[in-house]
Amino acid sequence: MAQTPAFNKPKVELHVHLDGFIKLETILYYAKGCREAIKRIAYEFVEMKAKEGVVYVEVRYSPHLLANSKVDPIPWNQAEGDLTPDEVVDLVNQGLQEGEQAFGVKVRSILCCMRHQPNWSLEVLELCKKYHQKTVVAIDLAGDETIEGSSLFPGHMQAYEGAVKSGIHRTVHAGEIGSSEIVRLAVDTLKTERVGHGYHTLEDEALYKRLLKENMHFEVCPWSSYLTGAWDPKTEHAVVRFKKDQANYSLNTDDPLIFKSTLDTDYQMTKRDMGFTEEEFKRLNINAAKSSFLPKEEKEELLERLYREYQWPPQAEGQVP
């Protein structure tokens, strides 16, 4: 018998990796660098999110990690081919848009810079600008936070400075396994508008209280944090503190194929182990919608849908936009 969903209402997801979603059958059926595979991966992602009850999702990926041409170094020890990062973005956009039409889920994408490859970052910015609002809504910095000084690598800093000047939205993986200093650099130097994970922000109480006051959004991935060791289960999870403080955060899957999970896995975990209620699930999804990178009019439409579905007027949600 299928498990009853922990929250059987429309949901918003802001932190999920396309390259951490890919279905095993798709990997086996297609080789990397195959154009049809790229479109199919994106299309199947939307299909899966529809089954999870997601009505709006921002999916992220590195165009360079899916390419095998005009990328240095070529990832995954592939032979050089003819699939460029630019074409990867175009193909993903096609798959997402076809999935959006087929399954009724609004989907936007975020392009990732990788901490270990700052030489890719300026091209990521240019792709964000080229495909802005053709599903692409933001830039991200992902990868190994423990690479010393990676937040300050010139390629990343120049890309984020360019994003600010170009009106490209910004998020950064920070404080997942890295220290609160990585979070501070993401906010103060890279000018991020959201923090991916952010658990170790709590190491610096002054920083945390400041971000709480500034209504910074934390993209929380509970099941992921358990499996990766980002959270020590002998301690209280950061999301419990976020809940107590009525912080601005969302629940997300991160890498569902890798972690053999769905979005309900994270909702079940927080409901069963952390005392989350339906009202808190409503509140965090509304905050996720408010913190999305949608244009104002589309964001308002999304919020209206959530208020209607939740039967919860805006004044009851306890947070001013």
UniProtKB/TrEMBL annotation:
PROSITE patterns: A_DEAMINASE. Belongs to the metallo-dependent hydrolases superfamily. Adenosine and AMP deaminases family. One of its GO terms (biological process) is purine ribonucleoside monophosphate biosynthetic process. It comes from Myodes glareolus. Residues 34-307 form the Adenosine deaminase domain. It is a peripheral membrane protein. One of its GO terms (cellular component) is cytoplasmic vesicle lumen. This is Adenosine deaminase. Its cofactor is Zn(2+). GO terms for molecular function: adenosine deaminase activity; metal ion binding. Pfam families: A_deaminase (PF00962). InterPro entries: A/AMP_deam_AS (IPR006650), A_deaminase_dom (IPR001365), Ado/ade_deaminase (IPR006330), Metal_Hydrolase (IPR032466). Its EC number is 3.5.4.4. Keywords: Hydrolase, Metal-binding, Zinc. Its main location: membrane. It is found in: Cell membrane; Cytoplasmic vesicle lumen.
